[in-house]
Amino acid sequence: MKKSLLLCVVLLLSSSLFPESLEAQCSMCRAVLESEEGQATAKGINDGIVYLMAMPYILVAGVGFVVYRMMYK
User: What is the DSSP string of 18-52?
Assistant: First the structure.
């Protein structure tokens, strides 16, 4: 059980530690942002999407951990 929990935490954190390996744009946003030179706006939007995508998972994991701790006390 501890190994699977650790694996889940590592997988969640890996997306936070290496956000440049994720591409999280819809096709329309991608088409508009690829035409810009420098790609600064595209990188910012990618980071924002990844951040918004990761927050619910982190919150659910935190609540799950609290419930788990309360059940086994």
Answer: -GGG-----HHHHHHHHTSSS-HHHHHHHHHHHHH
What is the rounded end-to-end Cα distance, in angstroms, of the chain? 16
List, for residues 4-36, the tens digit of each pLDDT value.
888 777 777 666 566 555 555 566 666 766 776
- The domain spans of the chain are 22-73
Q: Does 65 have pLDDT greater than 90?
A: yes
Specify the amino acid at residue 12: L
Q: Do residues 34 and 26 touch, judged by C-beta distance below 8 A?
A: no
